[in-house]
Amino acid sequence: MWEYTDKVKDHFLHPRNVGDIENPDGVAEIGSIACGDALKFMFTLDDHNRINEAKFKTFGCASAIASASALTEMVKGMTLEEASKITNQDIAEYLGGLPDAKMHCSVLGRQALEAAIDNYRGVPAEKADEQIVCECFGVTDHEIERAVKENNLSTVEEVTNYTKAGGGCKSCHETIREIINRVWSGKKEAPRPKLTNIQKIKLIEETVDREIRPSLKKDGGDIELIDIVGNRVIVAKRGTCATCPASQQTLKGFAEAKLREFVSPDLVVEEVIE
After folding, report:
1. Averaged over 52-67, what is the pLDDT?
2. How far apart are CA 111 and CA 220, in angstroms?
3. pLDDT tens track for 75-95
């Protein structure tokens, strides 16, 4: 049994903005009922080109409903450029976290939003250079590559959690491993300049304050940087993060990923128990 946050339960039991918009400015349908998850997302723009209405219809689990409901609330008042920067991690963080096995629901929401924006802009839905890797769930190589890069994934199981690829017949597992290896081997070809200890500590502090803490504070959470020992970044959870059942996912899937992105891929976030 998965443990859901109160916010996930609220958006599942009381979903916001369900239904159709008669004449949407942008609309997209992602996934399929045959694959288990399907989402229709649509929006309209006001006179200032900001999203003033967003609605959805979905066929899926509690996490899929909650993710889509949360997304419609998140985008209201945003320009399309602002909305296009929303990541699947942003959706999960807005909900206080999602179980690892349900992170693909937040990815589905991000894909639907981007596809609806592309629809408004007249961008073709089909990408000629994409290849289907997982026939069971219709997941392409580009979708897997993006999930690996944005969420710091390193195993087939993690890719399945975030995209559903490999969750069926498993015949694509070897191809998924090749994609993971290709993504991270490409990173190694362009190593970052070596940082001095002082530079690394300063960059870690800046990243925590600029990239991590503001997102956590949106939902009443926070982390405090306690110490830096080699590549170990030791933190303490504060606010709602201290009691949130998904906080460990937040530390690894969000905080650690941000530090690896902006500072060093060798960093590991550890929690101090006070």
Report:
1. 94
2. 27
3. 999 999 999 999 999 999 999
Q: Which residues pair with 176 in a beta bridge?
A: none
The residue type of 196 is T
Amino acid making up residue 8: V
Task: Quickly name the fold that domain 197-271 has.
Answer: GMP Synthetase; Chain A, domain 3 (3.30.300)
Average pLDDT over residues 38-47: 96
- For the ranges 48-52, 176-180, 201-205, 255-259, the lowest mean pLDDT is seen at 255-259
Query: What's domain 132-188's superfamily in CATH?
Result: BFD-like [2Fe-2S]-binding domain (1.10.10.1100)
| Known active-site residue 134 | no
Strand, helix or coil at 81? Answer: helix
Model confidence pLDDT, tens digit, residues 15-33: 999 999 999 999 999 887 6
Please, are residues 95 and 11 in contact by the beta-carbon 8 Å criterion? yes
Which regions of the chain carry the CATH code 3.30.300.130? 197-271
**How far from the centroid of its chain's Cα atoms is residue 243's Cα?**
22
Whether 169 is catalytic:
no
Distance, first Cα to last Cα, the chain: 29
Strands 37-45 and 51-59: antiparallel
Q: Which of 61, 105, 134, 241 is catalytic?
A: 105
